[in-house]
Q: What sequence folds into this?
């Protein structure tokens, strides 16, 4: 059997299990030992049931030995953000309001995971109601720093090699930003690719599901496994999804045409992040076109905030009204501000969102991808929030697929991610471009 199996990527572990060199029980046991060793400092888990995880793994081993069909994630441990409903596990949503909350319902993506043969390890810590108020999770690279939010525990658990794969959600920057801070790959696919049924709703217009892993191939693999049409999700589309894994493994037929937007809020980049991106743009040279977009593009930040805030106070009105004394002082002023947004202002914001989607549909006729920061720089110190999501806002609003590539390092040695954004429903091409970018930058350094 393989020593320190917890260090394997999902793709490596799958190959080892299929070849009989590793059992799922051994892999899960190795991950549980890693969690025991590291999680006192990191605090990535809201709920963990070792016995249930080992029982799932044992069933996976039985199925393989019996020669029965196995799925694309057979025997692989996966963590779920603690806003995703899973029977026999609590879903506490990062707040004491839902302490010990249990449901018989199962999120649609969890059904896909089970069909794919994944071992569901437990629930990873999220910020309060997957919004602005941080919980206890720390950055694995330096516990004095934040892992980002709101998918804090999912990113931290993967970065700490506690599990190879985890699932998060993004309404603004909650997959890409923590992936950047924790130095791992994060993929937020095209809006509607993955069902949100059974996932806490904070914004019906903006909520999206995403994946964390330690390689590009791994996030593609997980996304393929949980993607699919769901008639109960208004964002879900009834069309075939692109093959993410094929895209992540493919070579580009010709070097891609890339764009970089010189947006007004780029001045929020830290000095070391700015230096890193200048170096990336220099290496890309004529492959990337630097653009100064109209101010209307920057104004989309306010549009996203208006939609997000209006919808969360609608969707969670009963929670806020009934449990006001249990809401954090961080979230209360956001709720109070959101309650002042009129229906007309909200509808106007939705109309602008539709215009933004049309703009990017035309934009990508000429370009393969946009290069952008994933975050403003290194992770902030713990206690100073979960980081600025603004470098994800435009792309999330428009529902565009985006991926974090852990390519840069800040002045204190913490990771800084590079974000690539592609056209809707062409996620495979985005991943193909991401593979090219990694290789191109590596060749330039060598």
A:
């Amino acid at each position: 059997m393989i020593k320190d199996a917890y260090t394997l990527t999902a793709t490596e572990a799958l190959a080892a299990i299929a070849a009989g060199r590793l059992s799922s029980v051994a892999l899960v046991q190795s991950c549980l030992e890693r969690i025991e060793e590291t999680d006192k400092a990191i605090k990535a888990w809201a709920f963990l049931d070792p016995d249930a995880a080992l029982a799932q793994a044992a069933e996976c081993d039985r199925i393989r030995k019996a020669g029965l069909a196995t799925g694309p994630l057979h025997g692989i441990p996966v963590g779920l953000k603690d806003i995703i409903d899973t029977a026999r596990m609590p879903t506490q949503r990062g707040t004491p309001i839902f302490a010990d909350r249990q449901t018989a319902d199962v999120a649609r993506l969890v059904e896909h995971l089970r069909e794919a043969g994944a071992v569901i390890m437990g629930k990873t810590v999220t910020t309060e109601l997957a919004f602005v108020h941080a919980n206890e999770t720390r950055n694995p690279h330096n516990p004095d720093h934040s892992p980002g939010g709101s998918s804090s525990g999912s990113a931290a658990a993967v970065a700490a090699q506690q599990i190879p794969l985890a699932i998060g959600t993004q309404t603004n920057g909650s997959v890409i930003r923590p992936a950047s801070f924790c130095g791992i790959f994060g993929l937020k696919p095209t809006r509607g690719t993955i069902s949100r049924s059974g996932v806490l709703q904070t914004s019906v217009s903006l909520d999206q599901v995403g994946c964390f892993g330690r390689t590009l191939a791994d996030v593609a693999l997980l996304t393929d496994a949980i993607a699919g049409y769901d008639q109960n999700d208004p964002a879900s589309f009834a069309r075939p999804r692109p093959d993410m894994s094929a895209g992540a493994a493919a070579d580009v037929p010709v070097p891609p045409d890339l764009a970089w937007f010189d947006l007004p809020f780029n001045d929020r980049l830290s000095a070391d992040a700015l230096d890193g991106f200048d170096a990336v743009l220099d290496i890309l040279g004529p492959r990337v076109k630097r653009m100064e977009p109209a101010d209307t593009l920057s104004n989309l930040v306010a549009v996203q905030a208006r939609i997000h805030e209006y919808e969360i106070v609608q969707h969670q009105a009963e929670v806020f009204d009934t449990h006001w004394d249990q809401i954090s002082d961080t979230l209360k002023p956001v709720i109070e501000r959101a309650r002042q947004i009129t229906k007309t202002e909200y509808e106007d914001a939705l109309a602008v969102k539709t215009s933004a989607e049309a703009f990017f549909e035309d934009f990508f006729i000429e370009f393969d991808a946009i290069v952008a920061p994933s975050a403003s720089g290194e992770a902030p110190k713990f206690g100073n929030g979960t980081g600025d999501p603004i470098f994800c806002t435009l792309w999330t609003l428009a529902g565009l697929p985006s991926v974090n590539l852990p390519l840069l390092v800040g002045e204190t040695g913490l990771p800084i991610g590079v974000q690539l954004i592609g056209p809707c429903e062409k996620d495979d091409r985005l991943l193909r471009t991401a593979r090219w970018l990694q290789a191109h930058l590596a060749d330039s350094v060598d």
